[in-house]
């Protein structure tokens, strides 16, 4: 069939049942759709339903109504021969890790609320990213460099991050970590998880204190350029890539990739992104590509 509807629940809340998938199939059939049998990628967690004769946006709308607010992500996409992507380009903060590292630094410096509000507005597209990062770093100027290590101790990986990277790497997928944050944190996270490369901004330290940020600042355009470069260097196209992020500076790379995923994203990002994961963890990116439970590291 020409389209696939993928339903994904969080692994810790495996609420996806045959009863729910039957309700979804009935809803599509009532709209005069041709509906195939469910293909369970992971019982209780992820399922594919092939369908025809219903627009993908309408299929998503009908499915959400049939699910009756069940915490299940709904993604309908045209069937594609390159569903499994050959490269991942991922944002880091609030995506691969739970943290926003400038916020962590600010809380340690006791200016947390002030900096966090700037972060929130920048990630939701309410402030210019470049001016926002300069302002936040300027507020930290003069703080001891030891805060960088103290903040690193607070880092928590996003659920599913290790399984996502281990699974993709085992299938030969090239993985790039691109961040509007700082290489002080992207480098160790990239090494820990097995990313093939990382890029981020560089914080300037002078006299063992935070002094500024190196220009030019890497943001929205740099992330898009990284996606294009990774595809070019790997001899593939951006259609062969999957991207993931949560903030406004991720929108360009989300829109350009063959599969761009807004992950637990800011409201304005959710509005503009074609694919949203609101309930699942990062293994949702694997189910979206048709990976099955026995192919996922730590899940089978």
From TrEMBL:
Transmembrane segments: none annotated. GO terms for biological process: L-serine biosynthetic process. Its EC number is 3.1.3.3. It catalyses: O-phospho-L-serine + H2O = L-serine + phosphate; O-phospho-D-serine + H2O = D-serine + phosphate. Its cofactor is Mg(2+). Keywords: Amino-acid biosynthesis, Hydrolase, Magnesium, Metal-binding, Serine biosynthesis. InterPro entries: HAD-like_SerB, HAD-like_sf, HAD_sf, PSP. Pathway: Amino-acid biosynthesis; L-serine biosynthesis; L-serine from 3-phospho-D-glycerate: step 3/3. GO terms for cellular component: cytoplasm. GO terms for molecular function: L-phosphoserine phosphatase activity; magnesium ion binding. The keyword Magnesium applies. It is an enzyme of class 3 (hydrolase). Belongs to the HAD-like hydrolase superfamily. SerB family. This is Phosphoserine phosphatase. It comes from Ferrovibrio terrae. The lineage of its organism: Bacteria, Pseudomonadati, Pseudomonadota, Alphaproteobacteria, Rhodospirillales. The gene is serB.
């Amino acid at each position: 069939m020409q389209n696939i509807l993928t339903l994904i629940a969080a692994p810790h809340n495996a609420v996806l049942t045959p009863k729910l998938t039957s309700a979804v199939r009935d809803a599509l059939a009532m709209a005069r759709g041709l509906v195939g049998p469910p293909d369970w990628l992971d019982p209780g967690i992820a399922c594919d339903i092939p369908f025809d004769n219903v627009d993908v946006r309408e299929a998503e709308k009908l499915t959400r109504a049939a699910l009756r607010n069940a915490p299940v992500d709904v993604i309908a996409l045209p069937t594609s021969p390159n569903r499994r992507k050959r490269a991942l380009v991922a944002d880091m903060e609030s995506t691969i890790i739970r943290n926003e590292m400038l916020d962590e630094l600010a809380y340690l410096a006791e200016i947390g609320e002030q900096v966090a509000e700037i972060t929130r507005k920048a990630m939701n597209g309410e402030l210019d990213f470049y001016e926002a990062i300069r302002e936040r770093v300027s507020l930290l100027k003069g703080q001891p460099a030891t805060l960088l290590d103290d903040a690193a101790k607070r880092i928590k990986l996003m659920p599913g991050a290790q399984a996502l990277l281990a699974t993709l790497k085992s299938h030969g997928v090239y993985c790039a970590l691109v961040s509007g944050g700082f290489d002080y944190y992207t480098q160790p996270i990239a090494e820990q998880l097995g990313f093939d490369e990382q890029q981020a901004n560089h914080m300037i330290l002078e006299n063992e204190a935070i002094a500024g940020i190196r220009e030019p600042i890497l943001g929205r355009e740099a992330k898009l350029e990284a996606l294009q470069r990774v595809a070019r260097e790997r001899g593939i196209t951006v259609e062969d890539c999957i991207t993931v992020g949560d903030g406004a500076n991720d929108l360009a790379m989300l829109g350009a990739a063959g599969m761009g995923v807004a992950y637990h994203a800011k409201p304005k990002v959710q509005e503009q992104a074609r694919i949203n994961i609101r309930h699942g963890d990062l293994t949702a990116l694997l189910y979206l590509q048709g990976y099955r439970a026995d192919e996922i590291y730590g899940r089978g």
